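Worked problem 6 (solution included).
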Amino acid sequence: MTVLRARSKLVYFRVSEEEYAWLHAMCEQTGARSLSDLVRTFLRERRDGRFPGGERVEELQERIAKLTEMLEKVEAKLEGAQTLKARGGM
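Solution. The predicted structure is:
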């Protein structure tokens, strides 16, 4: 990502050794150039209502609803199969 405007403000905070290692690993996994780049990207995505990976809250809610529906169908089929087995139908 090319910097289009100069950054003149500095924000800093302390992290533990474990948190730093985790953040560094996240940089490598996501391809972020630096911790600053990683944090800016994450915060920008959150401001836009997205989670890391670009998914919006609404998209995640829809996926959860579909998965819940699928699980309920599987559960109903399993219960039906167990009922048949208990009756000696299988």
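Discussion: The CA atoms of residues 64 and 82 lie 27 Å apart.
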